[in-house]
Amino acid sequence: MHATATQLRGQVAVLMSGAGTGKTRLLLEAMSCAARRGFMVVDGVPKSLALVYSRQERHDLDRVNSLVGQVEAQLDDHLRRGPVFMAFDDAQWTDPAVLRALCALATKLESSPVLWLVVARSEHAESVNGLALRSLVQAVHGSFLGPLPPLSGDAVVEVVADLLAAAPDDDLVAVCQSVGDTPRAIVDLVRHMREQGCLSVIDGVARLVSGPLSSGIASAVATEPAAQLPRPFLHAMRARLNELSARAQDVLQVAAVLGYSFDPHDLAELLDERPTQLLAPLQEALAAGLLRSSSDVFVFRREPVWRAVLDTVPEPLRCMLHRQAATILLGRADDQTETAAVHLVHCAEIGDADALTTIQDAAHRMLRASPQSAAALATRGIRLTEPGSPDHIALATTATAALVRLGELTRAIDLAHELLHNHTNTSTNTDSDATRPLRIWLDRALMLRGDFTATRYLRTDGHPTPTDGHPAAAFTTSSHDPHSECLLLDMLSHNHQATVITLADRVLTDADAHSRDVQAAALNVRAMANWREGKIDDAFSTVEEAVLLRGAHTETWQCDPLWTKAWMLTRVRKLDDALAITEATRRTIDSERNNVLTPIPLALRATILLAKGDIAGAEADAAAGLIASEQAEMPLYEPQLHAVRVIAALRRGELAAAADGLRQLEQSSPAERVHRWTMVHRTLTAVVTEARRGAQEAMTQFRDIPTDQSLRIQLVLEDPLVTSWTVRTALAANERVIAELVVSTAEQIAATNPGYDTLTAAAQHGRALFDNDAAALAGLAEMYGDPWAAASTVEDLGSLLCNTDREQAVRELSHAMTAYDQLGAEWDSARIRRKLRQLGVRRRHWNHETRPEAGWDSLTGTEEKVARLVAGGLTNRQVANELFISPHTVGFHLRQIYRKLSIQSRVDLARIAP
Question: 596: which DSSP letter?
Fold first, then answer.
C-alpha cells in the first residue's frame, strides 16, 4: 500500500491458502486498512461490470475486451481521486475470462496507483483459474502470498477469548489447538461447544464443564480415554480421521494404544510389519496434522488428539493390544517396566501377581520424579488387587505417598482411611508391620493439613501413641523407624515444646542409634529451643550442623533445617543469605516434586522482601503463598503469610485491611498449633490496636511481660523493630516497667550474642528511647540492615530533637519521610508530616498525587506500566522480565488493576487500554 501510494505504480498480490485459514478475514482487514490510508476500495467485480453474455453469444476475446473497457473506465474515475485498492475473493470460482481481463488490465495500468489483491484457495492451484493467477503474477511481476501459517498458540487464545468474552483456561486452549490450526475449525468448535453447554464462564475464565483434563500417566491409565473431552471435539476429530485412508486409520489407532508418544519399532512389532509398510500411513497422518515426529519417536499432535483417536478403538481390542504391547516390552533386555505397567493396568486380571509386581515397582520408581504419575498408576493398580493382600497395601501406600507429595492431602487421607478401615486383620504384629508405612503417610498428611490431634500411629511397633500421653516412648524401642521419628519430632514441635525438646535431646545423646535424618530433625528442634532462649550463636551453630546432616533426598522434608536457618537469618537481617537459602529451598522442592511444600519458600521469601522494603513484592508472594496453601491443602504457614499482609497494610495506612488480615491470621492459628505464631499474633494485635485506639489499649497485650522472661525474649527476637516500638508505646501509655524490662532483655540478648549488629542496634535504640537520649541514636540506622528500621531510627532521632534543636529535628524528620516515601510506607510518611506541621513546617508527599478511586487514572505508575504491557499481549513472566520484578508481583498488580478498572480478565484489559 505504501509503495502504491507513494511511487504511483501498480502492485499485484495473489494470496493462495487453504480453506478456513483466514483468507477472507485478511482481505477484509486489508480493505479496511486501505480505506484508512485514503484508497478508493473496490470489492470484487461490480455487478454492473459482470459478464452478461454467454460464450455462444459473444467470442471470449470480445468479452474480455468489453470487461477491460468497462473496468478501466470506472478505474479512471476512481484514480482521479487517489489510489485504488481492488479486492477479489474466492478467485478459484471466478469466470476464467474475468481473470484474463484482470491480467490485461493490470498490465495496462502498471504505471497507475492501483493495488490488486486476489485471494484463492490453494487446493485449486493447478486448476484453470490457478494457472491463470500464476500467469497474472508473472505478467506484471507481482507477488505470491501465503499460504497463511497455522494460528500460533497466543492467537488461538485470543480467538477463543474474543468468541467467549472470557479468558480460556489451559484445558480449553489445548482442546481448541487440537482440533486444527485453522481459524474456521477453532471458531466452529467453540461455537458448537457453547451451544451444547460444554463450557462454563466463572470469574472471567472459560472452562470445560467436564472439569480439568488429566494428562500424562493419569490419562494413559484412564479406563475411558475420552471421558472428559467435549462431544463436539470428538465429532470434529472423527471427521478428521475419516478423511484418512482406511489403512492410515488402522495404523493410527494401533499407535494410539502405545501411548501419546510411540517408538516406530514398537509399532512395527505390534503390527508385525516391516518399517517400509508403515511409511505411507504415517506420512499421511503427519500431513493431516495428527502426528509430529522427533528424532526417534512419533508424538500425537496434542494429547486430546491422542485420546480422541484411542477412544475410537473398541474396548475389547484395546485390552488385547495392551496385553500384546506389555508382553513385547517385558520381553526385551532393556528395562521397560514403567511403560509396560501402564499397559498392564488395562489388561491384567485381579490377583495377577506378576502384573501387580510390575505395576508396584513402576509406581514406586515414579514416586520421587513424578508423584502425579505414581498416584495415577498406583490408584489404578489397586483395582487389580485383593483387599488386604500385600499388593493392596503396598499400592495404597505408594498412592498415598504420591498424593501427599502432590498436595492432595484430602484424597490421601481418605484413601488411607478407607484401606485401614476395611482392613480386617489389624490385630497381629505382622499385619501392623505391613500397614505401618501407610499409617505413617496418613499421619504425615494429617500433620501437614494441620490436624495434630489425629496423629496416632507413630510408634515403631504399630500401636497407638496418644498425643496427650508421653510420645517419648516412641524412641524407647531397639528398632528405630526414621520416618516415624522425624514425623513425631516435627509434629510435637507444633504443640508440645517441652516434650519435643526432651525427645530431641534424647536422640542427640544417643545419636549413633538414629539415622542422619532423625539427628538432623532433632538438631533442628534444639536450634529452635536455643533461639527461644536467646542463645543466637548456639542456635545458628546447631542449625548449621543439622543442615550438614540432611541428605540430598532427606526424610526431614517436612521440617527441613534449611527453612529454620533462613528464618533465623531473616530475624537478624542477613537478608541476602536468607534469600539465597530460600531460592535453594524452592529449587529442592521443585526438583523433588513436593508440591505440598510450595507455600513454604513463598512464605520465607515474602518475609524477606518485606524486610528489604519491597512491600509490593512481599504482598505478591504472600498472596501467591496463600493460593498455594489452599491448592496444596497445607495451612501450616498461612499465619506467616497473613502476618506479611497485615504489616504491608499497616505501612500503607490501610487499617481496615490490617484488621481484616489480623482476623485471618487468628483464624489460621487454631489452638492446637497456635504456639508457633503466638508472639506474631500478639505483637501485630498490639500494633493494629495502637494505630486504631492508642497506646493504652495496645499495652493490654503485654500485661504479663513483667512476670514472663521467656515471653520477653520471644518478643524482642520476633522482629528487630519490636523493641523500639514496644518501648515507645509503653512510654506513651505510662508503662515504664514494661519498657524497662523490654530494654534490659534486648540488651542482655545483644550482650550474649555480640556478633549481630541488628540485635545491638535494637537494644541501643530501645535504651535511647527509654533514656530520651538523642545522641545515643547516632549511627544506629546503618546497623539494622533493614531500610524501614533505619527510617524509623531517623524518625525517632528527629522526634527526640524536637524540644532541643528544631532545625536538626526538621532535617532528620524530612530524611525519614523521604525514606518512608521511597518504601511506599504512606502511613509512616503521614505521621511525620503531622510532626512537621507541629514544628511549623508543611511537607507534601514527594510523589503525592490525587487519584480517583476507580478508572484508568486511579492506577499507580507501576500498575499503568503493567497494564499496558499485559494489554499488549505479554505474559506475566514477560512483564516481570521487562520490569525486573517477579511474576508474583505482576499478578498482584494485575489484581489491583482489575479491581480499579472493574474488569475480570486480560481480554477486558486489552479492549479498554488507551
Answer: G
How far apart are alpha carbons 658 and 647 in whole angstroms? 7
Helices marked H in 39-150 — which ranges? Answer: 60-79, 96-108, 128-140
**DSSP per-residue codes, 653-670:** T-HHHHHHHHHHHHHTS-
Nine-digit cell string for 672: 492446637
Higher pLDDT, 690 or 466: 690
Q: Which of 735, 764, 722, 730 is nearest to 747 (CA)?
A: 764
* Cα distance between residue 122 and residue 788, in whole Å: 67
pLDDT at 544 over 60: yes
Burial 523-561 (b: 16+ CB within 10 A, else e): bbbbbbbbbbbbbbebbbebbebbbebbeeebbbbbbbb
- The per-residue pLDDT for range 477-488, each reduced to its tens digit, is 434 566 667 767
H or E segment at 297? none
Tell me if 493 sits within 8 A of 527, measured CB to CB: no
Is residue 42 classed as helix, strand or coil in its secondary structure? strand
Dihedral, CA of residue 152, residue 157, residue 160 and residue 161, to nearest 10:
-140
Interval 56-86: pLDDT, tens: 444 455 656 666 777 777 788 888 888 999 9
Question: 731: pLDDT confidence band, cut at 50, 70 and 90?
Answer: very high
Higher pLDDT, 510 or 911: 510
Q: Which helix (H) or strand (E) holds 261?
A: strand 261-262
Arithmetic mean of pLDDT, 640-652: 92
What pLDDT, on the 0 to 100 scale, is given for residue 889?
78
Backbone angles phi, psi at 847, to 5 degrees: -125, 30
The C-alpha cell at 161 is: 477469548
SS (HEC) of 487-510: HHHHHHHHHCHHHHHHHHHHHHHC
Average pLDDT of the segment spanning 738-753: 95
pLDDT, tens digit (0-9, with 9 covering 90-100), for 489-500: 766 666 667 788
Which residues are CB-neighbours of 837 under 8 A, at least 6 positions away?
none
- Cα(68)–Cα(5) distance, integer angstroms: 23
Residue 509: exposed, middle, or buried by beta-carbon count in 10 A (0-12, 13-18, 19+)? Answer: exposed
Report DSSP letters for 774-838, one per residue.
GGGGTT-HHHH--HHHHHHHHHHHHHHHTTT-HHHHHHHHHHHHHHHHHHT-HHHHHHHHHHHHH
What angle, 0 to 180 degrees and rounded to 10, lies between the N-to-C axes of helices 231-242 and 303-311?
Answer: 80
Taking the alpha carbons at both ends of the chain, their separation in whole angstroms is: 27
φ and ψ of 875, to 5 deg: -80, 170
pTM: 0.75
219 close to 373: Cβ distance less than 8 angstroms: no
Three-point CA angle 849, 851, 855, nearest 5°: 150
3-state secondary structure (DSSP) of residue 84: strand
